[in-house]
Amino acid sequence: MGEIIKLNESDENDLCRGISFYSFTEDFSEIRFQKKSRLSGKEIKIIVQALAAGKDFAQKKIINAVLIKKVLEENPDVKMAVDEIKNYDEYTYKHSLNTAFYAMLIAKWLKFSEKQVKEIICAGLLHDIGKLKIPLDVLNKKEKITDYEYGLIKNHTIYGFNLIRNMKGINNSIRQAVLLHHERMDKSGYPFKSGLSDINAYAKIIAVADVYDAMCSDRVYKKRKSHFEAFRMFKNEGHEIFDAKILKVFLSRMPKFLIGMDVLLSDGEIGTICEISPDSPEYPLIKTSHGLIAAGVDAAVLKII
């Protein structure tokens, strides 16, 4: 499984400098974008674990997170757009908040400036705004969609670009992220089947955040996958379709937040995530009443609880 991440280890270069991710009761300090803009490391952990367990309060926490709240306060048009998404479709609203939150973390891990992080948050909040133009009976269809309906859904990136192209406070990088977040490195995405050189950095970050949240969320037509299935997909297939640098930082940082959480295993056992290998984040070490097991090898993680 590779080198094991120890429970009491601290990564001074991590998002939460000087904070251990690995103790569930750890006393958290703060991370700083600027002196007047602080985000509690404890709050990050609470939000990530609430999202992982599917807790309803997660989005309330996200929308009040310091930088996300600032983005909405500073951009009334963005706030109005997010409210419109909420009124149209609850899943799209929650997914937009979640994507903005994950994208914010990735951007900070990549050492983007605060201005850039806030722009990436905007892109995350607005990335699916084009779905306002998709009929709800298509957007939330439980049965298999037709080719025509899939074509409508794929058009949401173009619809979104057009909806925000004249929005105040929205620059071209944000517009491009909304337009291109479904493009892939191997040219398998849409709407243009663009390759590496045609996709901007914001879109590449939103792409990873978007797919991660979509895989790990319940939808009307599809049940959520475990976060470890998502990590497995990113590790085994992601290098062909996502930016390698973004994928590397995501897989090295995100799994650590899940340490300390309880999980239901396929053999009916309930255990606690106690260690995760940076080389194999899809195989967490789980403490159960029968001892330690490597989840995904000895038993699959059905869900985080």
Detailed description of the structure:
This protein has 305 residues and is an alpha+beta fold. It has one domain (30-257): Hypothetical protein af1432 (Orthogonal Bundle), CATH 1.10.3210.10. Helix content is 47%, strand content 10%. The chain has 14 helices and seven strands. It has helices at residues 41-53, 58-63, 66-74, 76-88, 90-109, 114-126, 136-139, 147-154, 156-164, 172-180, 201-215, 227-236, 238-241, 244-253; strands at 30-34, 37-40, 262-265, 270-275, 285-288, 291-294, 301-304. A five-stranded antiparallel sheet has the order 6-5-4-3-7, with no helix packed on it. The chain has a two-stranded antiparallel ribbon with strand order 1-2. Strand 3 and strand 4 (270-275) form a beta hairpin. Helix 3 (66-74) packs across helix 4 (76-88), helix 3 packs across helix 6 (114-126) and helix 6 (114-126) packs across helix 10. The longest helix has 20 residues, at 90-109. The radius of gyration is 19 Å and the shape is globular.
